[in-house]
Design a protein that fits this description.
Length: 72
């Protein structure tokens, strides 16, 4: 399940880098208000950009710590 977590974290980091051109926390948090309300097409659905990023990072964290649903 660790690989699921790695993949989720990689997807989340990629989404953050594509949107903000940085992975530095200070830069990302400073630029985040400009992304409020932006939509992205994800799996055929129109989803808020920040929500999509956060969910990807959440899936990564759940996979890395083998939480319910991703434990063996």
């Amino acid at each position: 399940m660790n690989r699921v977590g790695d993949f989720g974290l990689a997807l989340g980091m990629r989404a953050i880098y594509v949107q903000f051109k940085s992975l530095d926390y200070a830069t990302v948090f400073a630029r985040a208000p400009s992304a409020v309300g932006e939509k992205v097409n994800f799996l055929g659905m129109s989803v808020d950009v920040l929500t999509c990023m956060c969910l990807r990072r959440f899936v990564g964290a759940v996979g890395k710590s083998a939480q319910l649903g991703l434990h063996t």
